[in-house]
Amino acid sequence: ANFKIEGGKMYKRRQSREVSVGNVKIGGNNPISIQSMTNTDTRDAKATIAQIKRLESVGCDIVRVAIPDMTAAKNIAKIKSQVNIPIIADIHFDYRLALEVIDQGVDGVRINPGNIGSIDRVKMVVEKCKEKNLKIRIGVNGGSLEKELLEKYGSATPEALVESALNHVKILEDLDFRNIVISLKSSDIYKTLDAYELISKKVDYPLHIGITESGSVKKGTIKSSIGVGALLLKGIGDTIRISLTGDPCEEVIVGKEILRSLDLLNDKIKVVSCPTCGRCNIDLISVVNEVEEKINNIEKDITVAIMGCAVNGPGEAREADIGIAGGKGEGLLFKKGKIVRKINGDRLVEELLEEIDKY
Ligand code: SF4
């Protein structure tokens, strides 16, 4: 995934080893995958399946579910049988839950080996993961750092996060297990950047990136875009999760948009739209929202422009393959900056979608 952005600098992705999670490959030159986490009660299989299906429909690549107890763990096979994307079980402390979800056919486990007790317990989990070729994600979080490290570093510094992750890594490596993905999350962007930069020089495991507890959809989108965007621009990050306090589908939509903004998303469709001004004669905001939503899952290398007026629109969007420019009660369809025909005002979205389809 090394390429030169036109007129810009070379984007160079950190080299990482490849780790598989079900049918999704993380790391190496594989596309950066988008993850989310269900917020349904995993003990309620029906609700969890419904939410995962919604996540699939907006383009989620991998989903994580919380496993608070054995009832939740025993639901994994049922949930898996109804959905298509790989499932990662999020487990804290209890190795028996890990063993159960693996038996249930989960695709990966997020567990910190240093937190599950004796080495025999870790061994049991690791052996089972090896048997089924599962990955383990070590997830270090600034808010739940080990007491010793907090004492040693005074707070959850980047060095403390990295040391914690490397301690967990060592436990797995000593058991000859290397199907590892690492995350080092903090709600502080600067600490997160430093921590990932530090660890990226020490190991070649794929990195799961994100800014944790980043807030509501609006605030969290901005914070995550800056944090995750900054990491991606440094070539760091093999899979992303945008944490938002809201519908998990929003996390996927935002994640896709971050990758799309950096030309790192597999689907190549791009929408450009003008900010509108006093010349705009149509309800551009609704048109843009509707078109963006409808083309979210289209995989085409095409740039679509939606512009407010015919005076400047086509010219401003010369680079676009197809576009519309608003006029009085109508819109003008243009291709590569040239107007080709008029469209009735109430058919703008439909006809634009038809043109995209034909393209
Ligand atoms: Fe204003 Fe037209 Fe430019 Fe949109 S395209 S910002 S409406 S001049």
TrEMBL record:
Residues 17-255 form the IspG TIM-barrel domain. The keyword DNA-binding does not apply. The keyword Metal-binding applies. SUPFAM superfamilies: Dihydropteroate synthetase-like (SSF51717), Nitrite and sulphite reductase 4Fe-4S domain-like (SSF56014). [4Fe-4S] cluster binds at C274, C277, C309, E316. Residues 270-358 form the IspG C-terminal domain. It catalyses: (2E)-4-hydroxy-3-methylbut-2-enyl diphosphate + oxidized [flavodoxin] + H2O + 2 H(+) = 2-C-methyl-D-erythritol 2,4-cyclic diphosphate + reduced [flavodoxin]. One of its GO terms (biological process) is terpenoid biosynthetic process. Its EC number is 1.17.7.3. Its cofactor is [4Fe-4S] cluster. Keywords: 4Fe-4S, Iron, Iron-sulfur, Isoprene biosynthesis, Metal-binding, Oxidoreductase. Binds 1 [4Fe-4S] cluster. Pathway: Isoprenoid biosynthesis; isopentenyl diphosphate biosynthesis via DXP pathway; isopentenyl diphosphate from 1-deoxy-D-xylulose 5-phosphate: step 5/6. One of its GO terms (molecular function) is 4 iron, 4 sulfur cluster binding. Pfam families: GcpE, GcpE_C. Belongs to the IspG family. Converts 2C-methyl-D-erythritol 2,4-cyclodiphosphate (ME-2,4cPP) into 1-hydroxy-2-methyl-2-(E)-butenyl 4-diphosphate. This is 4-hydroxy-3-methylbut-2-en-1-yl diphosphate synthase (flavodoxin). It comes from Romboutsia ilealis.
